[in-house]
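[09:14] KT: can someone run the structure on this one? pasting the chain below
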Amino acid sequence: MVIATVLSATAVTLALADGISNGNTDATDYQNDLYIVENTLGKDIDGRNIVILSNDVADSGVSNIKIKETFDDVETSKDVLVFGNTWIKNIDADYISEKVKYYANSGNPIISLSRSSDFLYSKNTGLASSYSADDDIRCIYYDVLNDVTYCYGTSGCTPEESLKLAYAWAEEVLTESSSKMMINSSDNGFLWSQKLQSSHTQDDGNFGRMNIKSFYSVLEEDDDGKSFVLTEYQLQGVPFETSSDWDNWIGVSGMEVSTQVGNYSADLLTYGPSSSSGGSRAISVNLSANVSINDIGAAIGKSWSYNVPDLTVRDRSDFSLNKFSTVEEHFVGDEASNKSDTLLMEPGKIVSTSGNDGQIYDETDYYSVTFYKDRTLLPDQHSTISKEMIVSF
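[09:31] RB: done, structure tokens below
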């Protein structure tokens, strides 16, 4: 890349030590690399400036990319903020927590290139959050108009790929939030207001990618202080193409979505799907619960369906433990025409919650995708990608 012809001389010699703390690559490998700037050149995210917070201030040479050490002159609700790993470690924790809370609540998209990003959690921002403990990148955007929070993270990806995915996420959510109101109508006329969209990308370089995109909507509290939370999960397994002469093909052999409901007087009311026999079919998710809203009996719910090939759905939920768990086992074999296809799983649930200390709800979501690799002469292989997400709002 002809970065030297684009950046000023000062920027070319910049020792940008703000690398991503990646699970596969030590951040010190990137101490003298300009990859944050390099991978940001030419980016235009919804016409906004991109402000890179770094210990080394320089002119990027590009009009929409600013490199700063402090938040001075950051345009509230407009600029996209990118935090470098080393910068985070060298900044006072209370200072960054205060600034993040302000700019996140003002609608500034924030991309943090560090695992040390606890300041993005709900307990600091007061916004909804959904992250994993081992995220390599964490992102947040609060749509002030619609009162919806978007969270995104990556793990297992290269630093360059993580940054590329983060910018693509920012562009997507800014476009989406500006184009529609986040209201979902239930089957019986009740309105669910979306509060959180949680997304994550995790790679296993030898087998495939797991993508998560889950939607959390709330039916606001009744006179008894009780709210209802609808979750619509999307879990995608993407097999990679084989790169070795010893490998024939890679497919998705299993997927799982599980939830442990949190401690805020919450109860699992309904979930789906439950179970089905094998074969290619449309899987129906029918969520329905009889509840009392403002002392009036009512039925709430939502329904949808999705198509999946050659599977068995196994229900491992437990009402007594407030645990939802559904597993899809996919048939993969040489004779399956779709053995290497991307697969999508879309279960859901409804819980009731009374909230506590200003929070409505919390839960721990678990996702996993198991890949199968068919090999020549060598033993076949399985590999499972899993992710545990802490959700609160």
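[09:33] KT: thanks! The longest helix spans residues 159-179.
[09:34] RB: yep, looked fine to me
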